[in-house]
Structures are given as C-alpha cells and as structure tokens.
Design brief:
Layout (H helix, E strand, L loop, with lengths): L4 E3 L1 H30 L8 H25 L1 E3 L14 E6 L5 E6 L10 E3 L3 H6 L7 E6 L2 E10 L1
Parallel strand pairs: 1-2, 4-5
Antiparallel strand pairs: 3-4, 3-7, 6-7
Helix pairs in contact: 1-2
Length: 154
C-alpha cells in the first residue's frame, strides 16, 4: 500500500504546473538536444548526446515522481482556527534561549526547512502535532535534546 502524500493546495497546484511544463516544454527541449547531438556523428564519444540522455532520464524520473505524488495526494485543509498543532498549521516556537522561529507543518513532499516548512514526519513536526500554545516539546537533534515552547498557532 502506498502512503498518502499530504500537500497544501498551493503545493498541489505547483506540482501540477511543474508536471505540465515537464510533459510539454521540457520533454520537447530535451528531444531537440538529443536530435542535435545525434547529428554530430559518433554517439560513443559524443558528450552532448550523453548529457542530453542523462537530462532525459532526469526529466522522465521527475515526471514519474510527480505523478506518483499527485496520485496519492490528499489536500491539507487547515482553517487556522485550531487550538492544537495540525497539518497545515503555522507554529511559532522558541527553543530555549534562541529567538522564536516560525514553521509551517506540511507533508514530506513539500518540506523545505530553509524556508520554514517542516514535515509532519520530521522529529520536530511529530513532536508538535496535537500540542497547544504553552506546551514544551523535547526533540532529539544532532546536537542533543532541545526543548521547544509553542508560542503561537496560526
């Protein structure tokens, strides 16, 4: 059984747009690169051809990945009125003596910690789910156990 892929509405639409771009424009561009490289002659020592074939494999792999994500996608419905952390919620937490940080809890397909989007399956995401303002959660991090206090849930 394949696992559900949780996506925000925005994330779902972005993946649909990327899939459309890859299927229509990018496939055609790569096909042109292959055709041009073939015209250069001997394919055994043709770096342009090899690079184009690698790009083609990447594009086709990405298409398959996106199709799989969208096939099992479930849109996260978060209205911002919950008093507990849930998928789609934006949470402000404070780790011990550091400045508060803001995270949105998303599915693993959309996780990007560098922009504040953490997976519900990550250690911090799992620890926050179901918790309320004022709760303190302990999370195992590479540097040891860290405590996070929930300051606000949006």
């Amino acid at each position: 059984m394949t696992e559900t892929k949780f996506l925000t509405r925005e994330g779902y639409e972005k993946l649909q747009q990327e899939l459309e771009y890859l299927r229509t424009e990018r496939r055609a561009q790569v096909a042109d690169q292959i055709r041009i490289a073939k015209e250069d002659g001997d394919l055994r020592e043709n770096a342009g051809y090899e690079n184009a074939k690698l790009e083609q494999a990447f594009v086709e792999g990405r298409i398959q990945t996106i199709e799989e994500i969208l096939k099992y996608a479930q849109i996260i419905k978060h209205d911002g009125n919950s008093d507990a952390v849930a998928l789609g919620a934006t949470v402000i937490v404070q780790e011990e003596s550091y400045e508060p940080e803001t995270f949105q809890i998303v599915g693993s397909a959309e996780a990007n910690p560098s922009v504040g989007r953490i997976s519900h399956a990550s250690p911090l995401g799992r620890a926050l789910l179901g918790r309320r303002v004022g709760d303190v959660v302990d999370v195992n991090t590479p540097g040891g156990v860290s405590s996070f206090e929930i300051i606000e849930i949006k």
